[in-house]
Amino acid sequence: MRVPLVDLNREYQAIGRDTARAIKEVLRRGDFILGEAVQHFEEEFAKYCDAPFAVGTSCGLDALRLSLLASGVGPGDEVITAANTFIATAFAISAVGARPVLVDVDEVTFNINPAQIEPKITQATKAIIPVHLYGQPADMEPILEMARSRGLKVIEDACQAHGAKYKGKRVGFFGDAAAFSFYPAKNLGAYGDGGMVVTGSSEVAEKIRILRHYGQKAKYEHTMKGGNWRLDTLQAAVLCVKLKNLDEWNEARRKAAASYGQLLQDKAIITPLEAPYAKHIYHLYVIRLKNRDEARKQLAEKGIETGIHYPIPIHLTPAYKDLGYKPGDFPISERLADAILSLPMHPFLERKEIEYVAEIIKTVGEK
Ligand SMILES: *Cc1c(COP(=O)(O)O)cnc(C)c1O
């Protein structure tokens, strides 16, 4: 049996007819740049997040970058984030000329440890970016409290967490702004790149609308130094169709996660834990095991595709040598990087595939 990590083909089988119709409609109208579907999707996605404003962007990285720009973060500023995130979180901070300041994570949730943020705050700190890693929300309450008392901005990196809940409320409207990615393999994915900023601030939303569109509000009136960071109309049309399925797909992921959890009960394997405050939407299903590399090799031989998210923490990435961190600075992130393994996870995973994966893992996991 072959079990891929994600299977976009099955998703296409399920909704391809509807997305093709939506694409055709855009082709017929020809409004390719900031067309009708962009506005429509922005309205639908804001509603989905229970937030007042949503602004489409070119990708998740640019949604983060625009959130920082609109929050006034720039050269000389420091932004605090997790050491074990996808590189885009750090790149967005660097892109606006600020400096990423890293914090280690909680060993159970893999998310930023709020208790370790405070000692990292300096005069230069402007913002905190908690990452809702793998689809499980970061512990937002202590982070928001700390930020409020220190006058810091909070920008959620929700690129892996479309529809995840923190204390019963969907992520995206806890901080000053939240960034989402619609990279094809995300829980809500386009047929290419796309992103979104969700915010409760009309000022932030308006600034981002101007910045993403060459810094212009009216044609050729460039009031800010912006860029070309718009969401494509074609992608927005596809995303409108897919958004209708998101809750159902997230539930299917949760069901698959529950099956894995039952089948993988084994001392040698640590399965993901849903925090008491969280509704996890399992963008990734990440287990921990001692002999990860050997297990991964054997799984591949049995036709099971796995991933490592992420093999090198930000502070040990060559691109960030200049930050001056060294091995041992973030021991939990480093330990996790050596032990984590992402198993096949998508809404169309079948019970017999889950059983097959679990069976093989139990035979290769070191006792
Ligand atoms: C995917 C992702 C991003 C970036 O999204 P793109 O659309 O690929 O630019 C940022 N942060 C995290 C945590 C992500 O998973």
Strand order of the largest sheet: 1-9-8-5-4-2-3
Radius of gyration: 20 Å
Question: Which homologous superfamily in CATH is the superfamily of the largest domain?
Answer: Type I PLP-dependent aspartate aminotransferase-like (Major domain)
How many structural domains in the coordinates? 2
Structural class, by secondary structure, is alpha/beta
Bound compounds, each kind once, are: pyridoxal-5'-phosphate
Number of E strands: 13
Shape estimate: globular
List low-pLDDT spans.
none
Order of helices and strands: HHEHEHEEHEEEEEHHHEEEHHEH
CATH architectural grouping of the largest domain: 3-Layer(aba) Sandwich
What's the average pLDDT? Answer: 97
CATH fold-level name of the largest domain:
Aspartate Aminotransferase, domain 2
Q: Number of helix segments?
A: 11
Taking the sheet with the most strands, its summary is: 7 strands, mixed
The helical percent reads 25-40%
The CA-CA distance between the termini, in Å, is 25 Å
Determine the strand fraction and express it as a percent band: 5-15%
Identify the CATH class of the largest domain.
Alpha Beta
Q: What this model shows, in words?
A:
This protein has 367 residues and is of the alpha/beta class. The protein folds into two domains: 8-103 and 110-243, Type I PLP-dependent aspartate aminotransferase-like (Major domain) (Aspartate Aminotransferase, domain 2), CATH 3.40.640; 246-365, Aspartate Aminotransferase, domain 1 (Alpha-Beta Complex), CATH 3.90.1150. It has helices at 8-29, 36-48, 60-70, 87-95, 140-150, 202-211, 233-243, 246-263, 292-301, 331-339, 351-364, and strands spanning 53-57, 78-82, 99-103, 125-129, 153-157, 165-166, 169-170, 177-181, 195-199, 269-270, 278-279, 285-289, 340-343. The strands form three sheets. It has a seven-stranded mixed sheet, sandwiched between helices. Strand 4, helix 5 (140-150) and strand 5 (153-157) form a beta-alpha-beta unit. The longest helix is centred in the first third of the chain and has 22 residues, at 8-29. The mean pLDDT is 97.
